[in-house]
Amino acid sequence: MTVRKKKAERFTVGGAIWLTVGGESFGGRNRIDLLRAIATTGSITHAAKAVGISYKTAWDAIDAMNTLAGEPLVARAAGGKGGGSTQLTDHGRRLVERFGQIDAVHQRFLKLLDDESIDLDREFQLQRTLNLRTSAGNQFTGTVTRVLAGAVNDEVELALAGGARIVATVSRDSTQTLGLRPGITAFALLQASSVVIATGLDGLPASVRLSARNQLAGTVASLRPGAVNADVLLDLDGGGQIAANVNQASLDALGLQAGTRATALFNASSVILAVAA
């Protein structure tokens, strides 16, 4: 007998948001949908039918929401030829509108996570998931491993996922404002123009010292020549990439081409640190 294996499905990300008031559950999309249906139909009976619940369940939900909100979200107007109606108060309308805005952002974030984060063959990059946009050509995500306080500036060390480390020099005020301390996740931002590319450093003895605090070794992945400068992309040992702008004369002198071993050098003062708000 042949056993047929089920085709492997990809992992997907799901999630829901809900509101709480004073630690008590207010509810999520289902209750907001009920409020939205009341605004549309002007009737609890019709709204309950629209969202697929009983009248009693709808009324109990409305009563609970009115109590938790501190002021009515739903108001009933009695009398008239039509027998009265049920409508949202201004507070209720604002709540429905704000929940819709929050839910839209939440759905976008879930899509970003689903698109970028569940590929198990690719390193997780938080700044890519958050769609972080800056003018810096290089963006790295890491964990703060050390903060060395100085008289004016502090030295902050960041460990990247692949094992490489980046050192940044930031002001004492920046350290405190960003809450930089060992264990937190931070982003290192670096202009490609601040990166110097060197070759032949792999074979140098350990006693040789360079003034650049940051030295990341790797292999040239690609070169894109320009009128004056060339964009050089380096695949770093341990994962990740770094980009540099190299003038044409240096490109020729170094003999850079795809596959060349090289080292990216940059000063700690050139690194900008950021944290997620």
In short:
The chain is α+β, with helices and mostly antiparallel strands and 277 residues long. It is built from seven helices and 14 strands. A hairpin with a 4-residue loop joins strand 6 and strand 7.
Reconstruct the topology from this structure:
Elements lengths: L17 E4 L2 E5 H13 L2 H8 L3 H15 L4 E4 L7 E4 L1 H27 L9 H4 L8 E11 L4 E8 L4 E7 H7 L6 E6 L5 E3 L15 E12 L3 E8 L4 E7 H7 L6 E6 L5 E3 L3
Antiparallel strand pairs: 1-2, 3-4, 5-6, 5-8, 6-7, 8-14, 9-13, 10-11, 10-13, 11-12
Helix pairs in contact: 1-2, 1-4, 2-3
Please tell me about this protein's structure.
The longest helix has 27 residues, at 90-116. This protein is 29% helix and 32% strand. It has helices at 29-41, 44-51, 55-69, 90-116, 126-129, 172-178, 248-254; strands at 18-21, 24-28, 74-77, 85-88, 138-148, 153-160, 165-171, 185-190, 196-198, 214-225, 229-236, 241-247, 261-266, 272-274. The chain starts with 17 loop residues before the first strand and ends with a strand. It has seven helices and 14 strands. By secondary structure, it is of the alpha+beta class.
The residue ranges in which pLDDT falls below 50 over 5 or more consecutive positions are none
Biggest beta sheet attributes: 5 strands, antiparallel
Mean pLDDT: 82
Structural class: alpha+beta
Instruction: Write down the overall geometry.
Output: elongated
Termini separation comes to 57 Å
Strand-residue fraction?
25-35%
- Could you estimate the helical fraction of the residues in percent? 25-40%
Overall strand count: 14
Largest beta sheet: strand ordering: 7-6-5-8-14
The topology string of helices and strands comes to EEHHHEEHHEEEHEEEEEHEE
Helix count from the secondary structure assignment: 7
